Amino acid sequence: MSLSLHYGVVSSLGSGVCSINGLVLGFVGQVYDIRLMTSTSSGLVVNLTRDTTGNLTVSSLLFNPTDRISVGGLVTGRPSLASLVLGDFLLGGMLDPLGNVLLQSSTVSSEYAWLIESPSIGLIDRQSVFEPLQSGLLSIDAMVPVGRGQRELILGDRYTGKTSIGVDFILNQRYEKSVCVYAAIGQKASSILEVFLSLIARGALDYIVVLVASSSVSSVSQYLSGYTGCAICDFFMLVRQLGSLLFLDDLSKHAVAYREIYLLLRRPPGREAYPGEIFFVHSRLLERSALLSASLGGGSSTALPVIETLGGDVSAYITTNVISITDGQLFLSVDLFLSGIRPAIDVGLSVTRVGSAAQWDGMKLVGGSYKLQLAQYAELQSFSQFSGDLGSDTKARLLSGASLVELFKQVNGSPLSLSYQLSLLSVVSQSILEYLSLDRITFFVSYPTSVPSWVFCCLPTLYLGLSITRLNLTLAPSSSPV
Fold first, then answer.
1. Contact criterion met (CB below 8 Å) for 33 and 75
2. Whole-angstrom Cα distance, residue 243 to residue 237?
3. How many CB atoms neighbour CB 423 within 10 A?
4. What's the alpha-carbon Rg for the chain, to the nearest Å?
5. How confident is the model at residue 386 (pLDDT cuts 50, 70, 90)?
6. DSSP 3-state assignment of 66?
7. Cβ proximity of 246 and 229 under 8 Å
8. Closest CA to 148 of 182, 116, 180, 123
C-alpha cells in the first residue's frame, strides 16, 4: 500500500508542463520519472494543488519537452531533489542547464552531487564585502567599484555594451584567481558561440564555465539555467574555497521564461502578466552570492546580472525588482554609446551600495574625485550650450572634463591591470593631460598595445621635469642683471 503512494499517472501535458494525479507523497522540488517505450523522461515538481473533489494534483515541469509522452503514462517519484554532478572537469567546458556536458576540455575526474536550488549562506557565515573585484575597466574600478561577494546589476538598452562589460570582467579574472561562469539565458546560439570563441582567443579557457540556454531551448531550461549557474559558483566557493563570478545574461529573459511557465500552470497573473512571486524567484537566485567568513575558507560568489531596458526606462517592473535586490547598478546610456563614449556608463545613474569599502586604498587616493568632476562637467556642458560667450575659467573646466571623458574611453577586450590604472590616474591627477590634445589621450591610455612600456615608466620622470621647468620659469627674474 505504501508503494502506491510513490506512483501516479499523467493527466494532462503541453509545452513542457505536466499535470499528475495520484502522486500522494509528492513534494515541491521532487524529481520524477515517466516511463516511455524504450527510455524514461524526467521532470520537476513545482506546485501542489487540490481540485474541487479534494484530489491532489501535482503540477510539474518536463526537463525534455520533446519526449513523446502520452496522457495516462506511469509516473514514478524519486525520493530526491533536483541535483547535478559538479567537479573540476567543468573548467573550460560548456554544459546545459541540466548539467549535461556539451564540450569538455579538462580530464579531472572529481565529482560531487550538488542541489540545483540550495539555500543561501546564512548571515553568521558571511562577512562584509571588503575585497575588490577588479574589472580592468578604468571607469568602473575608479568610480563604481565592485567587491567580491557583491551583486552588481548591469542594465541598459539593447546594443549598449552590457555583454562586453561582462566579458571584460571575465578576462580580467586571469590575474584574480577567480572561476567565472557565463550563463547565457535566452540569447542567440550564434551570439553565445561568438562570446565563447572570443574568450578562448584571449586565454580564458582555464578558468571559465559556459552555461548554454539559448533562445531555441524550452522555457524550463531557461528558467533552470540561472540556478544551475549559482550551483556551480557555490561548488567552487564552498568546496574549492575560491572566488567565483557569475555573469547572468540576462535576467529579463529569465523572467519572461518563468512567466510563460507560470501561465501554462494556470496560475493567476499579476502586473504585466508576471506572477506575483517573480520577486522571490530572483531574490533566491541572487542572494546566494556571498563572501564567506574566514572559518569557511573565505571563498566568494559575485553575481553580475543583466537587465535589458526599453528606452532607458529604469522604472519598469522587473528592473525595479532587481535593483532593490542587488547592491548597486551600472547603467549604460544609449546617448553616450552613440556619441562614441564606450563603455557608455552613465555616472549619474550608476551607483554601488558597498562604496569605497570594496576599493583598494591606493585607488581611493587617486580616483576619489573623478566621479564628481564628470558630474560637474555634464551639468556645465548642458548649460554652456545656451551661452555664446564663455569665460576662461568655464572653458578650462570644459576642456578638463572633455579630457576626463577621453581618458575613461576603453576598447572592448583590453582590460587594464591595477598597477597600470593606479599609475595612470596618479599621473593624470597632476594635470599631465593639459599637454595632450583630445585625439592623443586615447593613444596615451591604450598601453600596452600601442604605447611601449618604457614610455609609461618614464611618465613620472617626465612630469617631474615639467614641474621643475615650470617652477624655474616662475622664479626667474623678469630682466637679466646689468
1. yes
2. 6
3. 19
4. 27
5. low
6. coil
7. yes
8. 180
What single letter denotes the amino acid at residue 273? A
| Segment 12-39, tens digit of pLDDT | 888 888 889 888 888 888 999 998 877 8
Q: Which residue has the cell 568655464?
A: 394
CA dist., res. 345 & res. 328, Å (int)? 13
| Strand 112-115 versus strand 83-86 pairing type | antiparallel
For 328, the enclosing helix (H) or strand (E) is: strand 328-332
Write out the DSSP string of 247-285: EEE-HHHHHHHHHHHHHHTTPPP-GGG--TTHHHHHHHH
The model carries a pTM of 0.87
Label residue 109 exposed, middle or buried (CB < 10 Å: 0-12, 13-18, 19+).
exposed
Give the max Cα distance, the chain: 121
Question: Helix, strand, or coil here: 210?
Answer: strand
- pLDDT at residue 480, as a whole number: 37
Q: What is the percentage of the chain residues whose pLDDT exceeds 70?
A: 89
Tell me the catalytic residues. 353
